[in-house]
Write a structure and sequence with these properties.
The structure is a homodimer of 155-residue chains. Chain A has 155 residues and is mainly alpha-helical. Chain A contains seven helices and two strands, in the order αααββαααα. The first copy, chain A, binds a DNA duplex (39 and 39 nucleotides) through helix 3. Chains A, B: GO terms for molecular function: DNA-binding transcription factor activity.
Chain lengths: 155, 155
DNA sequence: GGAAGTTTACTCGGATAGGTCATGTCCGAGTTGCATTGG
DNA sequence: CCAATGCAACTCGGACATGACCTATCCGAGTAAACTTCC
């Protein structure tokens, strides 16, 4: 199991945008700010737009900004925008295959194993949902957002 | 993020072995029981042996059995035997890269984002650790283990 | 000076390629129980 | 009848092929602001 590296990009880009309220920041700016491949980062930002986390505007002075207030964007929103919302464990019902296959009458309820994996995934999601972007930047010393604002605003 | 399909094999094979206490079951038997590729399944069972979940014996009438009582094998043990114990989110410290790189003095503590992802992973692990193989087979109607015993014991 | 047309800067989407890892197969080495053989 | 030897079944480990997905790059289409031009 592995989360895409681009998830880290998405999380940091979103928190960076949260530190520049009102402003609109382009892909190239964000790519330079974190030293990331511009074209591929663009794809990930598009995923965030598609998920309703960011909103993108075209044209000159265009770019991205948060689509919602920071307190209404959870870390889970970002994670599932990039990686998808599916359960990493996929039950293929092998209990119904092979020599030991159970009859369908015994399989009306969900397999105990799948239920266990589902519960764990829900615990993971709940933990991520309890953290918002506002929480993420709330702990930072005031000097950081100030510096980010200076570096990302185009005057 | 995706867990290997072979994890389902490992979970079902372990619970199957738990239903046949004392007996030793070969890879070929398990593969036939669930209709799985024998050679590749062998690799996964080897991982479970390496993790101390199963113990394998060579020679005729050899095969696998549980290395510990069912109540002392957690689902987490099996999952991490197959998939590894690492956090799926890997922090690469991009906050220290690019134009917006933070000075090392600001990065002595772990990044808030990484901490959040760590906590979620721990919640996931805790959930899986709270479930043992004994719990998994405890809920089954008595007819199932009986059937499994009949199918997997070689008389 | 103002309106229309042109240029520029940027996002969006698709096409494509390489790398990594899970999946799957095959084969040889080593080990152990069983059968056979010889005393 | 017993011990020693050979055979068979099985696990273990490595080598190798395939496919899916993440990473990465490039290019064209579309859009909106800014700039230029012309009346």
């Amino acid at each position: 199991m592995k989360l895409p590296e681009s998830l880290e990009w998405a999380l940091h880009c979103t928190t960076a945008l949260a530190q520049v309220p009102g402003e609109t920041v382009s892909t190239a700016q964000l790519a330079e700010h974190f030293d990331l491949p511009t074209a591929y980062l663009s794809k990930q930002l598009a995923l965030l737009v598609r998920a309703g986390v960011l909103s993108g505007t075209t044209g000159p002075r265009g770019g991205f900004r948060l689509a919602r207030p920071t307190s209404e964007i959870t870390v889970l929103d970002i994670v599932e925008a990039i990686d998808g919302a599916g359960n990493p464990y996929l039950c293929r019902e092998i209990r119904q295959q092979g020599r030991g296959a159970l009859p369908a009458s015994q399989c009306r309820e969900r397999c105990t194993i799948a239920t266990t994996m589902d519960r764990a995934h829900q615990a993971w999601r709940d933990s991520l949902r309890s953290m918002t972007v506002a929480d993420l930047i709330g702990d930072l010393p005031a000097s950081i957002p100030e510096r980010t604002r200076r570096l990302l605003s185009r005057g």
